[in-house]
Structure formats: C-alpha cells, structure tokens
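Input.
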Amino acid sequence: MTLAEILNEIQRLPLADRKTLQDQLATEAATDVQLQEQPSLDEFYQSLFDEGFLVNLPADLDRENFEPIAIKGKPLSETIIEERR
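Output.
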C-alpha cells in the first residue's frame, strides 16, 4: 500500500478513530525520539570535523567552569537577524 493510499484511508475514518490514530502515532514518535542515542559532545565535534565543518578539533573544554562572555548592547542573535533582513 502506498502512502497516498494510506492517507486516503485515514481520511475515510470516523473522527474518533482519527483522533485515536493521531494519539497512537504521537506516542510512537515520542518513544522513537527517546530511543535515539544522543552523541556525546566529543562525538558531535568529531562528526563536524569529519564533515569538514571544523578545521581542527577543540582541545579538552573546561565545561564545568564555562561562563558566557558578557557583551554590551543588544544580543548578537538580534543583530544577525536584522542584518539578514
């Protein structure tokens, strides 16, 4: 059965059955997300390096003592958004 045929059959279902199907699919999707293994930060950096997004791998980061740098003015994200407009 093709996806189009499945969607057509779903449209023929009574509203209550469609709601039940929607709830079941949402539960399945949530379970799938929970089952996906999250890579470590080092694995993430390695994948970026392998794909060519990083020139070199960062040295061991002091993650526990990380403090963001305070900057004056509006947030950098706002500046980027404004410049893209």
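The mean pLDDT is 83.
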